[in-house]
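Researcher: Here's a chain I'd like modeled. Treat it as a single chain, no partners, no ligands.
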Amino acid sequence: MKLLCTLAAALFFVGCATTDAAKPTAEAAPAAAPAPVRAPTAAVEKPAEPTFAHMNWDQVATAMASGATLCDARSKTGYDAGHIKGAVHTPYKAENGMAALPADKASQLVFYCGGPSCRASWKAAVVAKNLGYTNIGEYKGGYPEWAKLNAAK
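Model: Modeled as a single isolated chain. Structure tokens:
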């Protein structure tokens, strides 16, 4: 009888092991969800910033003599404290700040501000470009350079 109980127990365990192995288990881990597809950040390029012709004072003076509009992109305070003779005030941040620009979008515009480290002239030139102006230059020396060049005069 001992032999019969041992044999029955062995068959029971073997049968259970075989049955469980053949059945798919609900407890199995679900398949991993596919990773979202993302563009590689190194491949994404920023659009190039617009560039404008850099002009020295002699080029600016020649352009003005030919009818170019000289545009002071500094704040009202800076403009009122002193500006290049003949310049119009074009504060790019102000509402209607570009109202002084000529109607002809092909007119030559030359923007200046507080010198090489100031970006107001570039920003104002970008606004003018976005308004449709096509002939834009930038006097990077700005008011400080002009004032130095004209101090002795």
